[in-house]
Each structure stands twice: as structure tokens, then as C-alpha cells.
Amino acid sequence: MVLVVKQYRCMHxxxxxxxxxxxxxxxxxxxxQRLNWNPRMIALMSCVxxxxxxxxxxxxxxxxxxxxxxxxxxxxxxxxxxSVDGNWKALGKLLVYCSGRGxxxxxRVPGHFVYxxxxxxxxxxxxxxxxxxxxxxxVSDPCEHLDQGEQGxxxxxxxxxxxxxxxxxxxxxxxRDAKLHPTEVCPYCKAKLWNMLQAKxxxxxxxxxxxxxxxxxxxxxxxxxxxxxxxTLLPLSDSDEVSELE
Length: 246
Ligand SMILES: [Zn+2]
Ligand SMILES: [Zn+2]
What we know:
- The chain has 246 residues and is α+β, with helices and mostly antiparallel strands.
- The chain has 10 helices and 12 strands.
- Strands 5, 6, 7, 8, 9, 10, 11 and 12 form an 8-stranded antiparallel β-sheet that branches.
- The protein starts with a helix and ends with a helix.
- One zinc ion binds at residues 98, 100, 112, 143, 145, 156.
């Protein structure tokens, strides 16, 4: 692979910031296709080369999202809410990274990669109050972090709105004059965050969907429509445990 890569070094790009020369965009595409758009590799390379980071933002993260969440991608693209460069990187990170602590200072759980997460539009409905149910929101299953001291079993979940800029949720947050978090930002795109609990916009159906205690669900939505939340999970019932073991 290294040999092939060297042969294709592009020698005529005066704007390149990478001091060791670089590959043509087509070759990068093919190499990463072979790597099945490995997100760790994309993230790593983006840190060391600005030229690569630009391709990653425009092309690689988009392909990554398309491979991992094809249905959701169709929705996001057809609505036009994810046509701008740069959004793909945030979405890619959202797909594979549980952000853990940060926002939720009462709990200390480091962020981590997750191998595979299911995002569901049907699930998303449970997180919208009745007045906003026409919005489209994709939400993941909770990432379970068990035995977190006093907090017990904790679940982190994340999601993304389709066409957030024209959503009812956004309009309602603005109409209600909901406050943005003073310091914390979205771990995926660095935008400011609204606290949905403070805005009283978390329906009871959210805790049912998560399998969490009713008053222990909290989530935030950023200005770009990414959602992240935390809940305290109910203990598994005996019958659940049996079916887990089967
Ligand atoms: Zn997690
Ligand atoms: Zn965001």
C-alpha cells in the first residue's frame, strides 16, 4: 500500500500545507473506500494534514455516513439540511462517538468510540412533545454505562434533527425564549446548546422509550440540530435478563 501511495504523490499543488507532499484526491478516495471509511483513520489523518482534512470534510465523512446510516442520510440530504460542507464531519462523529461526560457535570464518564449504534426515526418521535411531532428526529439507543456510583445505571443517547432550521422545536425554543447553555458546546459541531429540560420540552414518552426513570431524562439540542442526552436506566427485570442470556 505504501508503495502505491508514493507513486501517486501529487507534486504540483502550490497551496498544499502538507510538507511531505500528498496524494491526489481520487487516490485518497480509493484507499479509504478499501478501508471502509475507517473513522479513526480519517480523524487521525485530519489532525496531521489540512489538505486531507478538507477532503475528509467534503468527501470522506459523507461517504462514511452514507455507508453506516444510508436511510438517515437520504432523509438528511433530501431535506437539504446537510448539504453544506463540514456538517458531514459532525454527523460522522455523532454516529460513532458517545460523548459521555462534559455537559453533565454530575457524572464523570469519558467519551468513547462505539462500534455500531442504531438510530431510529420512530424512536425520535418519543422525544418530541405532541405539538412538535411533525419534526423528524433520529435518536440512538442508549449507550449503557452501568454502576456509576450514586447515579446507578446511566444511559447516554444522541440524535439529529432533519431540517432543524425550520423545525417546530427550534421555533418553540425561540418563542419560549429558552436560554443557551452559558459555557458548554455541542461535542459534535461546537455550537451552543439549548437545555430541553429547562424549556419543559421533554415528553414522558422519552423515559418509556429509553427504559429510564421518568424524572431522570435530560437532553440538549445544539443550534445545528444535534441532540445529546443522559438518563438513569431502570434495572432490568428478571424476564429481560433471561432473554438477554438466551
Ligand atoms: Zn457511552
Ligand atoms: Zn452540534
